[in-house]
Design brief:
Layout lengths: L2 H6 L2 H5 L7 H15 L8 H17 L2 H13 L15 E2 L2 E2 H4 L13 H11 L15 E7 L1 H6 L1 E12 L15 E2 L8 E6 L2 E6 L8 E2 L12 E12 L8 E4 L15 E7 L6 E3 L2 E9 H6 L1 E5 L7 E5 L8 E4 L14 E8 L6 H13 L7 H8 L2
Parallel strand pairs: 3-11, 13-17
Antiparallel strand pairs: 1-2, 4-9, 5-8, 6-7, 10-11, 12-13, 14-15, 16-17
């Protein structure tokens, strides 16, 4: 991220949040705006696409605690295009820092070599340290969402995800220079990206004003990125969603986020998974659930029945005689895969089905059954316990 971006762009305003907003508030606002301005939802709308790029760029900075801190400090120190001067009284504030804290270990007076700690501070903010070459920076973490079918969530699946974020400009391949030209080493800082500045009694390093901290000067800037070497772009990646993922679960894919800067590692990709409900099966942790109807004779006399499994092949369940309505049976190893590699179970709950239409033979049989059990009252114990309260 260049000094110019830090100074000229108000990322808080772009996301519609305050400087004191929490990470969750920033994420919530980003998701709302990203859905509204996403290119897929605004086909052919150039303004919406540009707005989406601004939103993504702002979130890439503010969602990373380290980069957000650097951004806040940079705007505090360089607010208005220059340094803030110490306040009256000798101590004073300097961009929100106490000079005594900054130079406490620098020898007291802070002469020509006394600006080292402030130089380190500024160097860390803009990619270098006290006049050395800019260091690699890890790419930002990226968040996205995907929807899986019930079976894919149980067994795992590879999905195609479209990601939009900042990366090297595809036109100039990150050089910032127009096609057919190359940047030249900055003559002012000799390629370090840093220059020394003297403020009376002390000196410190700051990003070179001529090359803006890049160490390179572009004479013929790339028309696509205006010489920054960075651009918003879309890319498709294949992501493997592990077996057993649950609805609403957040999956981390290491190194699949935004590309790093200056050779730094890529950030991580976090995928929020939504699972489409199944018309037959449910989930209870890593166990699958299913409700199966059985007949009155099957419940009373016992039976062996076939029940469905999510992989399509039915499994057998033994129903013992005298099974009550709502009893649950466990079929081991027919559920979802756990993180440790073991597999959950299939929980089968039986529901006794009462026939709606009886033929004469069935009605006579039930009448005979009622007469044979006329002396039994299944509600007798219930009524007795109710009288005791």
């Amino acid at each position: 991220m260049s000094t110019k971006d830090y100074l000229e762009k108000d990322y808080y305003k772009i996301l519609g949040v305050s400087k004191t907003s929490t990470a969750d508030e920033i994420k919530k606002s980003y998701r709302k705006l990203a859905r509204k301005y996403h290119p897929d939802a605004n086909k052919g709308d150039a303004k919406a696409e540009e707005r989406f790029k601004e939103i993504s760029e702002a979130y890439n900075v503010l969602s990373d605690s380290k980069r957000r801190k650097e951004y806040d400090e940079a705007r505090s120190l360089f607010g208005g295009g220059g340094f803030r001067t110490p306040g009256a009284g000798g101590q004073g504030g300097f961009g929100g820092f106490d000079l005594g804290d900054l130079f406490g270990g620098a020898g007291g007076t802070g002469g020509a070599g006394g600006g080292g700690r402030l130089g380190d501070l500024l160097g860390g903010m803009f990619g270098g340290r006290g006049g050395t070459q800019a260091r690699p920076r890890r790419g930002a973490d990226v968040e996205t969402e995907t929807t899986l079918g019930f079976g894919d969530a149980i067994d795992g699946a590879t999905v195609s995800l479209r990601l939009t974020g900042e990366g090297p400009c595809p036109t100039c391949h990150g050089t910032g220079a127009k096609a057919g030209t190359v940047p030249r080493v900055c003559p002012s800082c000799e390629g370090t990206g840093q220059s020394s500045r003297n403020l009376g009694s002390f000196a410190f390093s700051e990003p070179c004003r001529e090359c803006r901290g890049r160490g390179l000067v572009v004479d013929d800037p790339c028309p696509a990125c205006s010489g920054s070497g960075r651009a918003m772009s879309s890319r498709n990646i294949q992501a493997r969603i592990p077996a057993g993922v649950a609805d609403g679960q957040r999956i981390r894919l290491k190194g699949k986020g935004a590309p790093g800067e200056r050779g730094g590692p890529a950030g991580d990709l976090y995928v929020r998974v939504h699972v489409t409900p199944h018309p037959v099966f449910g989930r209870s942790g890593h166990n699958l659930t299913v409700t199966v109807p059985i007949t009155i004779p099957e419940a009373a006399l016992g039976a062996e029945i076939k029940v469905p499994s999510h992989r399509g092949t039915p499994v057998s369940v033994r129903i013992p005689a005298g099974t009550p309505n709502g009893r649950t049976f466990r079929v081991r190893g027919k559920g979802a895969r756990r993180p440790d590699g073991t597999i959950g179970d299939l929980l089968v709950t039986v529901a006794i089905q009462v026939p709606q239409n009886l033929n004469s033979a069935a009605r006579d049989a039930l009448e005979s059954f009622r007469e044979a059990t006329a002396g039994e009252d299944p509600r007798e114990d219930l009524l007795r316990r109710a009288r005791q309260t």
